[in-house]
Amino acid sequence: MNILDQDIMYLPGVGPNRKKMLSKELGIETYGDLLEYYPYKYVDRSKVYTVHELTGDMPFVQVVGRILSFETFEMGPRKERVVAHFSDGTGIMDLVWFNGGKYARQNYKIGTKYLVFGRPGVFNNRIQVQHPDIDLAEKVELSAMGMQPYYNTTEKMKKAGMNSRAVEKLTKTLVGVLKDPLPETIPNFITAPLHLMSRDQALRNLHYPQDTKDLERARVRLKFEELFFVQLNILRYASDQRRKYRGFVFNRIGPLFNDFYQKNLPFALTGAQKRVMHEIRKDMCTGRQMNRLLQGDVGSGKTLVALMTMLIALDNGYQACMMAPTEILAEQHLQSIREFLKGMPIRVELLTGIVKGKKRQEILDGLRSGDVHILIGTHAVIEDTVQFAQLGTVVIDEQHRFGVAQRAKLWAKTEGNTIPHVLVMTATPIPRTLAMTLYGDLDVSIIDELPPGRKPIRTSHVFDNRMTSLYDGIRRQIHEGRQVYIVFPLIEESEKIDLKNLEQGFETLREAFPDFRLSKVHGKMKAKEKEEEMQKFVSGETQILVATTVIEVGVNVPNASVMVILEAQRFGLSQLHQLRGRVGRGADQSFCILVTPFKLSEDTRKRIDIMCETNDGFRIAEADLKLRGPGDLEGTQQSGMAFDLKIANIARDGQLVQLARDEAQKIIDEDPQCQSPKYQMLWNRLRQLRKTNVNWAAIS
Ligand code: ADP
Ligand code: MG
Q1: 267, 276, 424: which to mutate for ligand 1, most atoms within 8 A of CB?
Q2: pTM for the whole structure
Q3: Which domains are present in the chain?
Q4: In terms of pLDDT, which residue wins out, 69 or 450?
């Protein structure tokens, strides 16, 4: 048996109680689990300071000296503060206990040489350390202490005396018990040229590094390993898919595409749209299934690219389908696509949850007979009852709500092992390194150019005590014929309060704008009602749309030129950017106004500043990733490519992600079937990881 699989109970210092505690609180069952329970910080214990050197703003320090005397101060009933005056000959400092002082007074002796460890502060002009760690100086061998690891423990553990120090004792024992070198997971011929430590060295050093350089090298090795296997898994999946399935060959650019391009297209394509179309056309001719992620900021013209991609399928005798995350969006796609295709012999239908009865049956029949050429819809289109005569291309708008598993359901709609081409579109720009990990099985195209003539949206920040002048501004815009969005936050935890908030706010606004007509839309309304209210705004019947974030994605009203976001502090960056993207779609100057209370947290201030500074979705996404970390980014949970990273951080370790990707790609290119004995160590490890990690199994 591999010693790392040994039950943690057999580790000296762990009895049945601690075994239970470790398992329940930290999920640690084996030696290996404990070894992979990494410290969250380290304190350098190789250096000893003199009292004279200390200042109040140092991190943890240690000093060797003697206690001169104790003093006790009463602090109310049964509370006392105990102070020990401590000196090493260079000066005097105070050791302070607010609790446990009695124990300290009894246990520590005046005149004995102690090693004192803690974080220094200043009180009454004197350095003090509260609740210090104290050891007999002669007992500790300073040079051997190096960096001391700190481990997270839970409240329950702390109550039972299992603090960081206790876990440290266990990891120290463990590292001692593991005499033989730990098994390697990546062959030396891969790690050596990259100057990476062995796994054995890295794991030991991560708990007990000699110095910060050592620690950094250990970290790099383990981060690389983690990212490398994630990439290997993704690329293996993609290569499997390619081997298992073929893609239709659509090499004909026929009359539909050409007619549309020459007669119906109301404007010239942007350079970016042309480039992306070129990439898509190339994909469709290879005989491999296209699996492409199209990223483009809001308003960059993705719908048109989607339409032309679908026309290629039609020209080759196949049908196409486009999925949107909401009914409103699907409806809008239907309208704009019908508008684009006016006068052309193409039947486009809408299928959502609200299409029922006879109409639904008609559409289903049309799909089966091939009479319906393009189907636009919501999740409803992946239901089993929806069958196509010849589905050739699928476009998925706003990827983050469709996971890999749902994409896979589409394969079932075609017979045999030739599957439809897939174009996934997202307006939530994803930084490259994150895309590589989340959507690593997709090729990526980027539209990085907005259609000409757009004026950049002007964004400003307004405190909520300035509403009167904000209302004046809104009135001026409406008098000029423009329309206005006013958004209220609606966050699930406090949905009820928010709804009340929205209702009240709506009344306030109605009173503030007696001359104008207002629409109101929120997530709790019936779909039909919502639709009607939206429609009033789209048609211009109402001038102000008061809404929650349901308008976040896709809604297109070019005449709207003002986006007011109330309580903007409650929105994330990418959400703010999405909302802002609802304006700036026409030729007029547009405005986005972020309203917040006066008092803001540091993070919120940063978010607001970035929004006011730039309209560039990629810059905003990068900033978002840095501020929030990848775990919170939209799409990470639902993506189906989810994974638990123990040590790497996609936001900060971008270069390592790239390196891991490149190395993994080389191996998959050389051994696409994962059979070469040369890489046996890797394939074994991958199998082991996939067995133990639930999330990883999700994509197999
Ligand atoms: P998104 O990428 O957000 O889905 P849309 O496809 O909705 O963007 O396009 C936004 C607007 O820009 C639409 O009104 C669309 O007709 C228009 N548009 C798209 N491409 C061009 C172009 N090349 N030139 C001018 N306008 C364009
Ligand atoms: Mg769109």
Answers
A1: 267
A2: 0.70
A3: 47-145 (2.40.50.140), 250-447 (3.40.50.300), 458-614 (3.40.50.300)
A4: 69
